[in-house]
Structure formats: structure tokens, C-alpha cells
Write a structure and sequence with these properties.
This protein is an alpha/beta fold. The protein has two domains: 195 residues, Rossmann fold, CATH 3.40.50; 214 residues, FAD/NAD(P)-binding domain, CATH 3.50.50.60. Helices cover 33% and strands 22% of the residues. The strands form four sheets. The protein has a seven-stranded mixed sheet with strand order 3-2-1-4-18-17-16, with helices on both faces. A hairpin with a 2-residue loop joins strand 16 and strand 17. It is globular.
């Protein structure tokens, strides 16, 4: 049982938006809480730092709100710690009443079509990690293709297409690292083709994200009038959703306008289902799609008409996928930890009642899959935290709930962990690098350099 004389000790694994929102929900409850946020990277903020395109400062503004949570005295950040290696679930049970996993989704969902394994095929998540300066990503990226296909019509697909179509100089005012800027300066792309299997009313990007494509002085966005088509299901979707209608209206306007003369062409194709990546000598030489049509319900069917597109690079942006977590069950098909309202589900007993992993919870994309925008994780966190608090009297008391014991444990294991104060030092260091170049920030990429700045050794 949890002692009423001390704070409820909670570990949250993953210091991205989902984990920070869970910490916020705990602090807004009536419980006396003491929270440790564990993060694999030396810096916090997860998807905001390593999953949002650098030319989206509006979205990165969410960091301001997350800062306020981490500034609270009930929260401690412990960065550069890998769960499963530096600390295990058994270790965590020694120090905490409960553990919440908010590890997100950082790999690409597979796309099962012939040729997808050819050289020149890439996952969007890998490309995003590269241009966002993730410490574990490569430092170089092949940008020698003049014509590129991007598969998918979500926000990530648009981010990838926009980053491939923009010039390095256009992106220099952002926080892109020097290696990314240098590579993009020699990017040879002149045409980027984005492919969606269904129609304009079924696109998954947001209106704002779509309109931002047209803001670049170097990118000409082109939509084929033949791709503007709606059935009864599509018209219903437009009436029921202002967002869907705004997307359709924007695409309609682009389809009827006269083409301009901006140097880079970004084509948005609808009703084209990728069926095969074409290749020769192990490399991409093209993409084959099947023309589709609406079936009346908003779904599609194939027409049997095929077209080959002469591209030499293919990026799949068909969704992210979470990775299994050591000591937790995992549904590989859905890419989530099986759970009910955030309680980790083991199985059912003989009477059919659910059995849960005691004191262990999930929130964010590892809980429900990589769907929804960043703000949707707030409701997710509230639900999980409500369950945790309902269960608190059933939690087994940790053997050593003293917060100082955790730091001593990590130090004894030789783990060079970072802190919230360390983030402030790294933040100041990156801003100083930017100021020297007339930019707001230059992101530090190498893990060792992040650690040195965080520890005040730079």
C-alpha cells in the first residue's frame, strides 16, 4: 500500500509531450506526487525536438507550455537514460509506486509492395530524424535524385515533400544543424510527387499544413484537375467536417490556377495507389501506381489502369510504429502495448476478467497508436492518470522511495545522466551558436556534445 505520509512516487519513461502531459495531469490532481521523467535523449521534448520539421516554429512553440510543467518542483528530469539498459522495470519498482510508459513511435510502418527494399527507398521517420539532427541518425543523406516520390498524404508526407523541395538557403534561418544545411545546398531534387490512394476528401493532412506548401517562393504546388473528384461519401465528409471542406477547397483552387514558374515542382496526386517500386541493378528507377476510383462510400477500388513514374527515390510516409518495450506485452500488428484506458493488459483469468500488470501504465502513441495531433495526447494522459490514481491504494510500496536513492543508483552504474538544469545549459549553448550566425538557434547533433553542454563542460 502507498503510505499516506509521503508523496506518491511515479516514474514516467519518455519526456516527450505525452510524458510531460502525464506529469501535468498528476500535478493537477489532488494527490501529493513526486515525479521523475526519464528520457533516452540528453534533451527532453521528444517529437517536438526530433519529429517536427525545422520550418515549423509555430508547432515548436508548444515547448513553452511544456517548459512550465518541467519547471515545477514536483518534477525531475533524468535524461540520457535508456530504459532496459541503464535501468529496468525491476529497478524502477524499487524506487516508485507506479510507472507510466510514454515512449512514442519512432520507426516507419512497413509498406508491403514489390521493390520497396531497393536502394533509393527510404522511410519518412529516418529522413525526419536526419534533418532534425537526431543523435542516432546518420550525419549524411543521399540527395542525388532529381525526381522523387513520397507515398502518403498525411502531415509527415507533406513535411518530407516540403523539406525535399526547399533549398538549403531557404531553411538556413531555422535551427537545422550545419550538416543538414550543407547537404540540402547540394540537393538535386527538382520534382517531388506526393501520392495518395484515395481522393481529396480522404487526405489526412491538416488545412494549415497543406496551405504552407504554397508559401515557399521556390516551390510550385501542382494539382491535376482530374484528381478533383467526390462521391456521396466524400460529400458527406465535407459537410460534416470543416477541416475536410477547407482541404478540398484549397486543392480545388490549386487545380484550376495557371502554373507558375517557381523552380521546384511539388505535385499532389490523388487516386494513385502504389503497387510496385521499379528498379534495375538494385536501385530505384521508377514507381508503378494503379489508378483508383471512389466507390460511393468514400472508399476506393482499383481500375486496372497502371502508370509508371520516372522517379529515382521513394519515401514512404505511411505511418509511424512503436517498438516493443522490455518486460511489457506488445501487439506487433497494432504497434501498441495492450491496455485498457492505460492499464497494461496481460491477459484474462479463467472467469474472463482482465489481468493487469500491477502499477504499470501507458500513454500517448504507445497506448493508442500513432494517430492524432500532439494536443490529442492531453486527453490520453488524463485518462491514464485517472486510472493510476484510482489504483494507488493497491500499489505495492517501493522498497526505497527516497528520490536521492535514484540518483545514487544511476551514478553507481556509471550513467552520465542529464537534468532540467542541464537542458537550460544546452538550450543556452544552442542559442549562442545561433546568435553567432544571426539565427535563433543551431541544434547540437552529436550526443557527446549535447552531454558536454548539459553538464557545463563546453
Amino acid at each position: 500500500m502507498t503510505s499516506s505520509k509521503r508523496a506518491l512516487r511515479v516514474a514516467i519513461i519518455g519526456a516527450g509531450p505525452a510524458g510531460i502531459y502525464a506529469a501535468d495531469a498528476l500535478m493537477k490532481s489532488d494527490a501529493d506526487v513526486s515525479i521523475d521523467l526519464y528520457e533516452r535523449m540528453p534533451a527532453p521534448f521528444g517529437l517536438i525536438r526530433y519529429g517536427v520539421a525545422p520550418d515549423h516554429p509555430r508547432i515548436k512553440g508548444i515547448i513553452t507550455a511544456l517548459h512550465k510543467v518541467l519547471d515545477r518542483p514536483q518534477v525531475r528530469l533524468l535524461g540520457n537514460i535508456e530504459y532496459g539498459a541503464d535501468i529496468t522495470l525491476d529497478d524502477l519498482r524499487t524506487f516508485y509506486d507506479s510507472v507510466i510508459f510514454s515512449t512514442g513511435a519512432n520507426t516507419d510502418r512497413a509498406l508491403d509492395i514489390p521493390g520497396i527494399e531497393l536502394d533509393g527507398c527510404y522511410g519518412a521517420a529516418d529522413f525526419v530524424s536526419w534533418y532534425d539532427g537526431h543523435p542516432d541518425a546518420p550525419r549524411t543523406w543521399p540527395l542525388d535524385a532529381e525526381r522523387i516520390a513520397v507515398l502518403g498524404v498525411g502531415n509527415v508526407a507533406l513535411d518530407v515533400a516540403r523539406m525535399l523541395a526547399k533549398t538549403g538557403e531557404e531553411l538556413l534561418p531555422t535551427e537545422i544543424p550545419p550538416n543538414v544545411h550543407e547537404a540540402l545546398r547540394s540537393n538535386r531534387a527538382v520534382e517531388v510527387h506526393v501520392f495518395g490512394r484515395r481522393g481529396p476528401a480522404q487526405a489526412k493532412f491538416t488545412p494549415l499544413e497543406l496551405r504552407e506548401l504554397d508559401h515557399s517562393p521556390t516551390i510550385e504546388v501542382i494539382v491535376d484537375p482530374e484528381d478533383i473528384d467526390y462521391d456521396a461519401g466524400s460529400e458527406t465528409a465535407r459537410r460534416q467536417s470543416k477541416q475536410v471542406d477547407m482541404i478540398a477547397n484549397t486543392l480545388e483552387q490549386w487545380a484550376i490556377r495557371d502554373p507558375g514558374n517557381r523552380p521546384h515542382k511539388l505535385f499532389l496526386h490523388f487516386f494513385e495507389a502504389p503497387v510496385e517500386v521499379l528498379g534495375a541493378a538494385g536501385r530505384v528507377t521508377g514507381l508503378r501506381t494503379e489508378r483508383t476510383r471512389l466507390d460511393g462510400t468514400g472508399e476506393i477500388e482499383g481500375t486496372g489502369a497502371y502508370r509508371d513514374w520516372p522517379v529515382t527515390a521513394v519515401y514512404r510516409a505511411v505511418g509511424y510504429k512503436s517498438q516493443p518495450i522490455p518486460k511489457l506485452p506488445f501487439d506487433d500488428r497494432a504497434g501498441v502495448v495492450p491496455n485498457e484506458q492505460g492499464r497494461v493488459l496481460i491477459d484474462e483469468d479463467a472467469a474472463g476478467a482482465a489481468r493487469y500488470l500491477p502499477g504499470v501504465y501507458v500513454t500517448g502513441w504507445i497506448k493508442r497508436g500513432p494517430v492524432g495531433l500532439i494536443g490529442h495526447t492531453k486527453g490520453d494522459a488524463n485518462e491514464t492518470v485517472a486510472c493510476l490514481l484510482d489504483d494507488r491504494e493497491t500499489h505495492s510500496a517501493p522498497a526505497d522511495p527516497d528520490p536521492d536513492s535514484v540518483a545514487a543508483f544511476l551514478t553507481a552504474r556509471g550513467v552520465a545522466f542529464t537534468t532540467w538544469q542541464g537542458w537550460h545549459r544546452l538550450d543556452a549553448h544552442e542559442r549562442a551558436l545561433g546568435a553567432a550566425e544571426g539565427r535563433e538557434r543551431v541544434k547540437v547533433v552529436e550526443r557527446i556534445d549535447m552531454l558536454l553542454a548539459s553538464l557545463g563542460a563546453h
